[in-house]
Amino acid sequence: MNVKMIVLGTMVVTSTTLAGCAQLLASASGTERVGKASSERTLSQRIEDMSIERTASINLYKVNPEVKNSHVVYMSFHSSVLIAGQVPNQLQKKQAEDVLREIGEVKTIHNELVVTPNISSYLSRAKDNVTQMQLGTKLTFLEGFPSNQAKILVEDGTVYLMAKLTKAQTNQAIDVIKTMPEITKVVKLVDYTD
């Protein structure tokens, strides 16, 4: 028997076995389809989002060490990235966006940086963090709300909602956000799933 025949025979057996495994798994796993809906964040997507945020922050400091006197926050959700905070000049705002353009995994950029000489204080940021944790908790325990399909950031009294939700679910989230007295504005960055 020559080598070509052995390889061909191995390929036939392997493909038949793999097809048989898929059929066996399909019948054993019930009628529900396997995998995640496109709106759900898988573990690998969460890791990729964290990597985008970290990479952008590191590269921004490498591009302009003066950014240490600014307040720039990156938040990635399904590779769509929000930039929020305050910078003292237009150059830093542009640089914060430019470092994202160099990251291949980034699909969309929402640059909400505010150019101002008044950079938020640590106390103000701490208050925003507390408000963000409270909102996150409320959304997590909101009955019927898919909190794993939404991500929020609170920055200087503004809530940024990044999500893949239905319009009804988005309205649910907005209703909860509006219960917080510290919130002055809501920015929706939502991909509607209906």
Would you kindly provide a written description of the structure presented here, covering whatever features stand out?
The structure is a single chain. The protein contains five helices and seven strands; from the N terminus they run ααββαββαββαβ. The protein is an alpha/beta fold and 194 residues long. It has two domains: 36-117, Histidine-containing Protein, Chain: A (2-Layer Sandwich); 120-194, Orthogonal Bundle (Helix Hairpins), CATH 1.10.287. The strands form two sheets. Strands 1, 2, 3 and 4 form a four-stranded mixed sheet that branches. A three-stranded mixed sheet has the order 5-6-7. α3 (90-101) links the parallel β2 (80-87) and β3. The longest helix has 26 residues, at 3-28. The N and C termini lie far apart (58 Å). The model has no long low-confidence stretch (mean pLDDT 86).
| Fraction of residues in β-strands | 15-25%
Query: How many whole angstroms does the radius of gyration measure?
Result: 23 Å
In total, how many domains does the architecture comprise? 2
Major β-sheet profile: 4 strands, mixed
N- to C-terminal distance: 58 Å
How are the SSEs ordered, and which strands pair?
Elements: H1 3-28, H2 43-63, E1 71-77, E2 80-87, H3 90-101, E3 108-111, E4 114-115, H4 122-140, E5 150-155, E6 158-165, H5 167-177, E7 185-192
Parallel strand pairs: 2-3, 2-4, 6-7
Antiparallel strand pairs: 1-2, 5-6
Helix pairs in contact: 2-3
